[in-house]
Automatic annotation (TrEMBL):
GO terms for molecular function: hydrolase activity; nucleotide binding. It comes from Agromyces sp. G08B096. SUPFAM superfamilies: ThrRS/AlaRS common domain. InterPro entries: Thr/Ala-tRNA-synth_IIc_edit (IPR018163). Residues 274-302 are annotated as: Disordered. Keywords: Hydrolase. This is Metal-dependent hydrolase.
């Protein structure tokens, strides 16, 4: 059975929930599960390399059957073997490899190569994750601004020109419905880069940091600037960028996820901070939560 030779064409960056597609490969994953690969998809997969945004929930329809998609994961092939999820041995976009979306179904016996199928993502879950992802980016930028005066050296700038604490210290980021949890390493490397980690040691310091970040987020949400995903093409590995129109100017961050249509759609955004320990290394934990508007604004401020 020949393996696909082209990246999956993805439509979720444009906000699409439904796509018409053709099955190009089917693989047995064991335990009765099968991975269905299509030429195009509206289903956002989780990327094992940086699993910040979870996979969409959704269904696959074929010949009158509706199969729940129990997972959607990144897969890759060099034409000789198929690798799924964490088993992918190369970086996304590696030359000579095709990168695919594997739609995992529990009973895919009825699905065959060449079938015309319809894929549909759950709209409410997609919106909740999209809001959580946009809030995560805004919170990271607001955090960078709040910590800008705690550097003794000049680190790389973020999308708004502030010292990029988020990009320098990030350990992990996990998007959830309406929010996110981001963990930052306060280690020796960060101190050598010129950041004053001692300034984050007390509960009062964390409360003050939260107040500063929340004030910035309130301003940005009230401004209601448009949010969009710009992309170089429709292939899974084509570069995509999150762009937000903010009072300080447009911000652009490389991102493969899905997003809200405006900052105003997020409603209220608030962060809180705590510290944790990771094998003796202090970790700053930022939890972001939103209270979204019930209906997405129809005309965000450009």
């Amino acid at each position: 059975m020949a393996l696909p030779t082209a990246d999956t064409r993805v439509t979720y960056p444009a906000g699409e929930l439904v796509s018409q597609a053709v099955v190009v490969h089917v693989a047995d994953l064991g335990d009765g599960r099968r991975a269905v690969f299509t030429d195009a998809t509206s289903i956002h997969p989780v990327d094992a390399g940086w699993p910040d945004q979870p996979a969409d929930r959704g269904v696959l329809r074929v010949r009158g059957l509706e199969l729940p998609i129990v997972d959607a994961v990144l897969a890759a092939t060099d034409g000789t073997a198929l690798h799924v999820g964490a088993d992918i041995p190369v970086r996304k976009g590696t030359e000579g490899w095709s990168f695919l979306v594997a739609h995992v179904v529990e009973d895919g016996a009825a699905v065959e190569i060449g079938d015309a199928v319809e894929l549909e993502a759950d709209a409410s879950y997609r919106r909740a994750l999209s809001i959580g992802h946009t809030a995560c980016h805004l919170a990271s930028l607001a955090l960078n601004q709040a910590l800008a005066d705690r550097w003794s050296k000049t680190p790389r700038p973020d999308a708004l020109g502030a010292p990029d604490f988020d990009g320098t210290a990030i350990q992990s980021s996990r998007i959830g419905p309406g929010g996110s949890v981001d963990r930052y390493r306060l280690n020796k490397s960060l101190r050598r880069a010129g950041f004053d980690t001692a300034s984050l040691e007390s509960p009062d310091a964390l409360d003050g940091l939260a107040a500063s970040v929340n004030a910035t987020l309130a301003e940005w949400v009230a401004d209601g600037g448009a949010v969009r995903v710009e992309r170089d093409g429709d292939g899974l590995t084509d570069r995509r960028r999150w762009v937000a129109e903010l009072p300080d100017g447009p911000a652009s961050i490389p991102c493969g996820g899905t997003h809200a249509t405006s900052a105003g759609e997020l409603g209220e955004v608030r962060v809180s901070f705590a510290t944790d320990d990771d094998g003796g290394t202090p970790v700053l934990v930022m939890t972001t939560r939103t209270t979204p508007t019930e209906v997405p604004p129809s005309a965000p401020r450009p």
